[in-house]
Each structure stands twice: as C-alpha cells, then as structure tokens.
Write a structure and sequence with these properties.
Oligomer: homodimer
Mean pLDDT of chain A: 92
CATH topology of the largest domain in chain A: Carbamate kinase
Low-confidence stretches of chain A: none
Protein name (chains A, B): Aspartokinase
Strand content of chain A: 15-25%
InterPro entries (chains A, B): AceGlu_kinase-like_sf (IPR036393), ACT-like_dom_sf (IPR045865), ACT_Aspartokinase (IPR054352), ACT_dom (IPR002912), AKIII_YclM_N (IPR035804), Asp/Glu/Uridylate_kinase (IPR001048), Asp_kin_monofn (IPR005260), Asp_kinase (IPR001341)
Shape of chain A: globular
Largest interface: A-B, 67 and 67 residues
Number of strands of chain A: 17
Structural class of chain A: alpha/beta
Number of domains of chain A: 2
Largest sheet of chain A: 8 strands, mixed
Catalytic activity (chains A, B): L-aspartate + ATP = 4-phospho-L-aspartate + ADP
Radius of gyration of chain A: 24 Å
CATH class of the largest domain in chain A: Alpha Beta
Pfam families (chains A, B): AA_kinase, ACT_9
Distance between the termini of chain A: 50 Å
CATH architecture of the largest domain in chain A: 3-Layer(aba) Sandwich
CATH superfamily of the largest domain in chain A: Acetylglutamate kinase-like
Enzyme class (chains A, B): transferase
Strand order of the largest sheet of chain A: 3-4-2-1-7-11-12-10
Chain lengths: 454, 454
C-alpha cells in the first residue's frame, strides 16, 4: 500500500489532474492520496492559497468579499469544467467557502487558518469527485472525522500520537482515500494548519499511520539534485539517500521536502520516494534508512544564507561552570533558537538564523550578555551563509575534510567556521554570504565533477 | 619596575639561589620577587611541597610528626648552610612550622593549606635573608600584612579587587620585596591556596598591582617551544607571542605557565617574559598584547588527551528552543564543565575533560538526557585528544585549514571533530588518543619544518 502526495503544481489545473489520475490508476496500491491546494499554472500565476489569504484579509477588514471569493471559486470552477465534472462539486465548494466566511472573526489567526485550509480541503473534494467520475472508487476524507488530532495553541502544530491509531483505519478502506494536506484539528475541534510544506507532513503522518510500503511525494522535479540547479549547472541526480541525508540537506537550502515531513515516515521506517508528476517514468529519489556509502561519501551539498553570529569572549570562560547555559537562557528568553556554537578557549559564537532577530532583540541580547555574564566582548554580525556537505559515511572517509577545505581555499574565500564532529553525515562551513555561491560551485566540482580542471 | 617569579627548580638549592641572586643584582628594576617552594634538585628528588603534604597527613593521622618535619627542616637547613647563612633564619623557619602544626585540625582542608603554604612562605623568608646577607636591601613580605585578599570558600580561590589597591603600595618600597607565591588570605584572615601553578598567579597579581613594566617568569627552560619537545624533536623557539596565543596553548598541554596566571597581567597590559634561571642570557619568550602575524600565522601546536564526548541525537532537535540549555543544565547539576559543543542538525556532542566523570556521573547524565530530554540516542565515548593549532591572524589566512586537514589526512588518521569559528587564534581538532602524537608531528612538519618531505 502506498501513500501518494501531490503538490500544488500537480493539482494546478485539469491537465495536471489528468496526470495525477493516470498515476493513481496505474498502480492499485496507491490507496491514500494527499493533495495540496492548486498551485501556480505558469510563472506569474497566483496560488489558490494566496487568493485565500487575500479573501481572508478582505473579510477581516470588513471589505466586500465578493471579488476575492470569485477568484477562488473561478479557479476550482475552471478545473471542474475542464475535467467535465457536473455542477454538484462546485456547489459543495461554494457552500464550503461561504460557511468559512461566516466563521467567527474574533480570533483573526483562527479565521485565517479556516480560510487557508479550504485550499487543500476543496482540492481533495475536487480530486475525489474527478477520480469517481472516471470510474475509480474514491472518497474524500475529512481530517476531523478521520481523527487527525493536533496540538493546541500556542504549541507548534504537531500531530498527537492518537492520530496514528485513528488514521490507521484508512488501511482497511477498499476505496481510494483522498485526504487534504496541511491541517488537522485539536481535541476541541479547532482547525490548525501545519507549518510551511504542511501537505508533505500530512502525507508522512498518513504513511506512518497505515504502515505504508512507500510514501510517494510527487512534485515537479524528476529527483533531488546533489546541488541547487540554479547555482550549479546540471547537477548530479540523487537516486538513493538516507533520511538523515535528506534531513541535513533540507536544513540548508534544499526545499524539495519540508524537513519536518520526514519524521513520521522515518520513525515508522516507511521509505519515501520523490517523484515527478510530469514525468512519472523517471525513477525519482528514494529516501531510506540505510545505504551503502562506500562508493560515494558525499551525497549532496546545500547552502543557505541569512545567518548571524553572536560572538562572546570572556577570559577564563571555560572555568565558569554554567556560562554557556546562562547564555542560551538569554536567547531562550527572547525565543531565539540557535544552529551551532563553535567555541574557542575563552570565547564562543552562537550561530543564529537572522530572521529571528530584530534590532530591539539584538540590543537586549547583547546588553544582557554584557551585564549579566560580565563578558569582555560581545557583538553580533550578520550576512553569513552555511554550506553543508552531506553524506553517510563521510565521517569514516579519511581526507574528506582536507579535500573540502582545499576546494574552498581555491576560491580565495576564507572559512569563518567549520563544524564537524557530532553529525556523522555532515560537515558544515560558515562563510561570508558573498562567497557562498562560488564555494558551492567549487565543492560541487571537487566531489561530483568527473574530472576537475582549474 | 619588574616583577620576577622564580619557580621551584630555581630555588631548589643554594647553587640555584646564587643564580637567582645574581639575576636580581644584575638589574636594579627587579624590585618584586615572588618565589615558589624549593622544588626537585635532581630526577627522583622530592619537592618541599610534597614533604609538607606528608607532614600534614602524618599530623592529621595523629602519627609521630618528627620524621616528616625533620625532612622539611633539613631541606631549608641544607640550603641555608650552603649559602653560609647564620642560624637565625632556621630558627624562624622551624618556629613557623611548629606553629602551623599546632593549627586546628578541625577542618583538614584548611590545615593542609596551612602546611602547604609554608613551602613558599619559608622559601621567601630564606631568599630575603640571603639577599640581605649578600648586601642587597631586601625584605620578606607577609601576604596577609600586604593585603593579598582572596575569595572565601567554597568559591574557587581568586584575588579580590581590593588586593590590587593594597599591593600597589609595594611600588613605593625602596627595598626589594620578596613575596611568597601560592596563597592569600580571606577577609576573615583564613589562609587559602591558589590552584596548581599558584606562584605564577601571585606574580601576575603583583605585576598588575604595581603596574610593572615587565613580569619575568623564571623557569628552567629557555623559552616556550612551538610544540612539546618530548614529542617533536628540537621544536622551534617562540620569541614573541600574544596573551591569547599563550592562553590557548596552555589550555591543551603547554604546562609552561598556568593559564589563570596570565589574566591579571593581561588585564593590566603588563608584558610577560618566560626566562631560564639557568641561562638568563637567553632572550626567552615575550608575551604581549599584539604581534605582527603576517610572517607566521601559526605560533604553536598543542595536544592534550583525556577528553570524552557525550553524543546526543534527537530528530528535529534544532526546532526545540531550550534543548541545548537543558542539556547544559544537566551537566551543571553534576558540576561538569565542557570544552566544545560541535553540532549537526539533529544532534550535538559535548566534549568534556574525562577526569570530571565517574561511572556514576556518566550513568546519571546519560539517563537524565534520555528521559528528561527524550533524546533518540545518547552515549559517552572516551579516549579523545584535542590538537590545537594556535596563531594570531590564523583566521585571516586563506587555506590554513586546508593545509592542516591535509597534513592530518597524510597520517591516515581520521578527524573526529573540527572546531573553528569562534576563536580568532585557534583551530581545534578532536582525534582519537592513539593518533595524537603522529598528528602533532605531522602538523609541526607542515607549519614549522623548513622543508617537508614525505
């Protein structure tokens, strides 16, 4: 039994949905289908989710909602018409949207969630109607009825363990279940949406719950590439990688699969396959628990910008039991998470994603570290990038760090930070943002180009 | 004005003390002299401090103290006789020791401190007597009267700021002040000894207090070497280095100068010179605030064994604000300090000096991390060594990490950890203890040998 998730571009229009239907029809083990909201059909198009946000904003502002609502309805209506569906499905979708608009606006965030989630929800209804229309036995599944129970606010939205039991029942349905991605309900029945990439998460939760043999994640790329194709020309395709490798790659710049989405599949040992709706014959990228790494120690290289460094020095810092803990407490008080803490003898740096900082937060953090920890020197620098070399068995490959640092030094760039030693599958370099791309290219050449010439 | 500290071997016997006297006589600006207790005269000899520990143990055990006391008295008496001093100084020393033996044994730790500190105290009295006997104007200074005030138990022994004011008065004495190293007194007049290497600390405190032009630290080596001479043959001599370089080198294996001893001199910007009592003509190693690093990015390479790694992994760890802080809190509860925290995406390692751990502590730490932090995997490994490359300006030298990692890979050893990025003056490699020496040798060859051949 397989769980298939289809992303926004896979359900963007009738033509795409026909591909989806043929993919489903082709393999009877594709029994649980998770769908996103209709995405962009062409460059410059607007996703349904964004139309829904406009609609929610208009409603909250007390403006006329008709034009914005019409745009949403039109997108679905166009798809339904092009698929030759009768008017029943559009009546259902229109009624659904009207119902949501009459939802209480007292808590704007809950109202937003209601509207946004309709994108996936109505997409699932539409897909189920279409599959039924073409003669497949398919059923729209309501996440509330199916029991996808999530954490209450203000906790980050996560599925509760009870969901696993509830959702396992889908295994025994003899029809194809079409499940909307992106949202669940609290114990009290309140709708909450997952983080970005939430349909990937829903698919993974379902794959784990039904104990799927495979979780197929259909996107618009043939596979995961060894490096960002917008920076490296024709990068190598990754055929097989481990969960850990995917997770470390997605951390820094690999947007193919939302990192949180891997967890349920990983914990339930369900292999994941990244496939292309537009080219389902391509074998895609398999993500599994283990792989033989003797032939290729490096699987991929990712890079991401937008990091800041909080540098703290204090003479004899390492004699002070509790110094690091107090420093992290100050960051926690500001709700700032950190990525790495490289340290010298009398100093340490905390690498932080810059989007978490504001000038006020920065000021408070720096002054608290100065006064409460009596630091000799404290400062924050931004414009750092992280370049991450990922590969199982890298740790056991002698000379790999030497090849990587040598490659970076060929670019003339300085290495601001090296972090190796905990993860067995990654080697992290902190570099100046301006050097990020040339370093990525050079590392790619070092580890992937068949022959390297200066 | 200079503060000169003479270590144990420099005051071990009459012959050595004559060298000390001639060093003092040679330069009238050498006005404050700090002395250790008489050290070993030859391989297999016993230091006075160790004789004093035997004496204290005998006294606490209620045994006959005469034999152990006699050994201590004999050492001083031999020196006094060989220096041709009259019996007065030995009467003073014997009375001092008798007085200390009658000190309350209620708190064994305070009793130990009393006895141990007598080594330096009587050494200072003897040196002052000798300098006076050869016609110099010299005076033994009692640290209690001079106002070397230290923290109360149970805090780590450190000089309080008031000491600085009190001790600055020594600047205006026209005689040579002979000051015992290693101890001070709390506000309540209780004697407390500094950590290991405590005479270096006393000298540094005095140098800062009187605003010395130079703090000369006399030992039995000509200089600080770029690597451990017991491992690397004829290592390069370091002529000039910065406080930061000395501090980072002393962290891992460079026992020349106790790391804490640099702080007062560093804060007061007093340059430090490491010199050899047995070869005072050698220029020694100067330790200053800044040096031109354009010619030689690496100053020295140190290595130290006895590190353990606490590895913790948990899926999506980096999304959990507070994870690292809670982990460090668990270590703090066990009074364990850490050295480095290399981290991957979903895992981190804490590098700890193994001597802080016991099997019980390890068990408690591992089980608390498992249960309280819900970690997926937790384990402790020992037998790691840290190899540290130290040099001002290393951070600005492109390709240095590449040269270092390349050198290590030539040895066939694996790099378990790389930590670079906070300190501007060091690059730390974690390696298996068994590989430590070959790596040190290879790194030395890479950065110091005039020409390197495989």
């Amino acid at each position: 039994m397989k769980v298939c998730k289809f992303g926004g571009t896979s359900v963007a229009d009738a033509q795409q949905l026909k591909k989806v239907a043929s993919i489903i029809r082709e393999d009877p083990s594709r029994k649980v289908i998770v769908v996103s909201a209709p995405g962009k059909r062409f460059d410059g198009d607007t996703k349904v989710t964004d139309l829904l946000i406009d609609l929610a904003e208009a409603a909250l502002a007390g403006q006329d909602t008709v034009p914005a609502l019409q745009k949403v309805v039109d997108r679905y209506a166009q798809i339904a018409a092009d698929l030759g569906l009768d008017s029943e499905i559009m009546a259902i979708i229109a009624a659904d949207l009207a119902g949501r608009l009459s939802f209480s606006k007292e808590n704007p965030s809950l109202f937003f969630d209601q509207l946004k989630a309709s994108g996936e929800d109505n997409s699932a209804k539409l897909v189920a109607a279409y599959l039924t229309a073409i003669g497949l036995k398919a059923e729209y599944i309501n996440p509330k009825n199916a029991g996808l129970v999530v954490t209450e606010a203000p906790a980050r939205v996560q599925a509760l363990p009870v969901s696993n039991d509830n959702l396992s029942a889908l295994r025994y349905k003899n029809s194809i279940s079409v499940f909307p991605g992106f949202f669940g309900f609290t114990k009290d029945g309140e709708l909450r949406t997952f983080d970005r990439g939430g349909s990937d998460i829903t698919g993974s939760i379902l794959a784990a719950a039904i104990g799927a043999d495979l979780y197929e994640n259909f996107t618009d790329v043939d596979c995961v590439f060894a490096a960002n194709p917008r920076i490296v020309e024709n990068p190598a395709e990754i055929e097989l990688m481990t969960y850990r490798e995917m997770r470390e790659l997605s951390y820094a710049g690999f947007a193919v699969l939302h990192d949180e989405a891997l967890m349920p599949a990983f914990k339930a040992s369900v292999p994941v396959c990244i496939k292309n709706t537009n080219n389902p014959g391509a074998q895609g990228t398999m993500i599994v628990a283990e792989r033989d790494y003797s032939k290729r120690p490096v699987t991929g290289i990712s890079a991401d910008s937008g990091f800041s460094t909080l540098y703290v020095s204090k003479y004899l810092m390492n004699r002070e039991v509790g110094f690091g803990r107090k420093l992290l407490q100050i960051l926690e008080d500001e709700n700032v998470s950190y990525e790495h803490i490289p340290s010298g003898i009398d100093n340490l740096s905390v690498i932080i994603r810059s989007h978490q900082l504001t000038p006020e937060k920065e000021f408070r953090i720096v002054s608290r570290v100065k006064t409460e920890l009596n630091a000799d020197d404290v400062h924050l620098n931004s414009n750092f990038s992280m370049v991450v070399l990922v590969g199982e068995g890298m740790k056991y490959t002698t000379g790999l760090a030497a090849r990587a640092t040598e490659a970076i030094s060929r670019t003339g760039a300085n290495i601001e930070m090296i972090n190796q030693g905990s993860s067995e599958v990654s080697l992290v370099f902190g570099v100046l943002q301006k050097d990020e791309q040339k370093i990525l290219k050079e590392l790619y050449n070092e580890f992937f180009a068949p022959s390297y010439a200066l």
